[in-house]
Fold:
Amino acid sequence: AQKITQTQPGMFVQEKEAVTLDCTYDTSDPSYGLFWYKQPSSGEMIFLIYQGSYDQQNATEGRYSLNFQKARKSANLVISASQLGDSAMYFCAMRALSSASKIIFGSGTRLSIRP
Amino acid sequence: DTGVSQDPRHKITKRGQNVTFRCDPISEHNRLYWYRQTLGQGPEFLTYFQNEAQLEKSRLLSDRFSAERPKGSFSTLEIQRTEQGDSAMYLCASSTPGGTEAFFGQGTRLTVV
Structure:
């Protein structure tokens, strides 16, 4: 069975600081993908970044980077130079090949940026 | 706008009524997913289509729930005899076969009164 764990229900960060959102996963499948999504109060799920299990380098997309540590089964999201607009819920998700491409989500972390 | 589109955005219905939601995926995406999200929780997987074939259904999808994707394009999710516990945000997502991106629609918020 696959599982995603996000242990930080909420975080407060000062504007312009970097922030790391934790995510650990569990799967026995050697082939999988990891996703991060942002969900602002409007409710829309916004795709941020993807990391494949065989990717050699950590994924980056603008201010977002994914710190992929395969042996530890962790896929932390790093947001550099945080902005007020980054305040939102953040979800880590995984898709394993053996689960017929079903994407499962963690419980989320609510990030609040202080001015 | 070429993103995932869901209709309606909001639905209020009386307990016991049937409701149907529609999802139009990104046109070149052959995979389509339905999720349910309750307040403060992550999305819960309901069902998944590849083209018109429904490949997986969650145990959450009771026999009151049915989903279709008849021509491999848009999909519908029907809930029969709605209950108050069905109140939630229903999210649709689509992705390419390569699967390195999966995009969500804005969701349909269902309130059962």
User: Anything to note?
Assistant: Chain B has no helices and eleven strands.
